[in-house]
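Purpose: get a first structural picture of the assembly so the mutagenesis plan has something to point at.
Setup: two entries, given in the order below. No constraints added.
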Amino acid sequence: MKVVIIGAGNVATHIAKALKAVNVQISQVWSYHYENALLLANEINAIAVKDLAELDNDADIYLISVKDDAIAELVKHLSLCKGIIVHTSGSVNIDVFVDLTAYGVFYPLQTFSKNKEVDFSNIPLCLEANDGKTLAILKDVASRLSNNVLEVSSEKRKILHLAAVFACNFTNHLYAMADEILKANELAFDIIRPLIAETANKVQNALPAEVQTGPAIREDKETIEKHEELLKNQPELLEIYKTLSESIKKTR
Amino acid sequence: MKVVIIGAGNVATHIAKALKAVNVQISQVWSYHYENALLLANEINAIAVKDLAELDNDADIYLISVKDDAIAELVKHLSLCKGIIVHTSGSVNIDVFVDLTAYGVFYPLQTFSKNKEVDFSNIPLCLEANDGKTLAILKDVASRLSNNVLEVSSEKRKILHLAAVFACNFTNHLYAMADEILKANELAFDIIRPLIAETANKVQNALPAEVQTGPAIREDKETIEKHEELLKNQPELLEIYKTLSESIKKTR
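Result (structure tokens, whole complex):
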């Protein structure tokens, strides 16, 4: 099994390292920024490639992990590659590869950041392929990384990605807003870290609607008014406070 | 040390059990709903009390954990009690007790739900008291429960509570919206649980603004448009999607 990594961002880096850790050989790394390809290649004992024309044509899998809107253009440069070509995007349809012979999607439903190790063993790896044989090969590789391998259509994958934006990206932004409120009052983010951990922990064994707490779900008008008063000079935070409180009230 | 618990909701229950676990004696439990007082009293080997007039007058601490707007009224019935009277609210000023001789606040900055055990040892316990002697007694009790005992003024506590609404209550509501999106498309909430856990985990050692990911922070217009299209029949989710995406973009 020989894999070529196309891209050297957070997702490419984490997948490449995880593959290397289970002894899958990564032969080459290409990136728009050669220095990034060099950095990643160096970490996983692969060769950094400057020009797409230099790519091995006989790798088993070409894993494209670049910005969504760059995938279609990249595909044009891979016509000589004989292996399976996959991307790792949550929202790009598998049709982007329609002119190829063996292709698929290898979407890890997880958030990746630089310098933050991630345990791959329970990451949902959402796979899609153009035929059964290709899917079997992708399943084989994915199951070396994770116990949570799923077959997911392009349509369902888009939904997963959208739900992930709410559950992860928006959630992290709310953490950032909490930090903004604390900082403005000389309080450290440290104080709410246990709360953040427990909030995520609670829904590991319950549905979020069952464990909603706070002034909005109690319709505690007095507290809500106090909070709105505290936010009166931060109109953006106030708008978000009102919008989300109203939305919570409707679930009562 | 003898404690009386006034209230039998989530916060009262969790604190009472935690006190019992470190061998602090709970003598009585009172609640607006006698059956709730009975249930809690039974769990912690205390006596349920029907009428406030039956309360021990010689307990060391009276811990009031009821709805915010009920605290002031309750205080009127505690004039014969000789111990320290505290409430557990994030947003009620310590002044609510101004006519008493020994009083304070015992605010656990955590989210509590029925049937979900919580590890008290790292919960920030935010204390406030009318004098040094009272504070020392509260600190003594709090430090038996947690390694994270803080002295916090009423003003700062209100800010903490507001930040907690963003970091916990709103975050949980975003999880619920993610679940709504998944359910509408016959996908299980299970699939995004690892993502939720990792999102909270990432900010335990980083600031949220440093680890923001997703289409809005990348200004990935194409993906944002796809998501808005997917939400076109769910106007409330669409509004929240737009509001939070715009807010994230401004942090670039």
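The mean pLDDT of chain B is 96.
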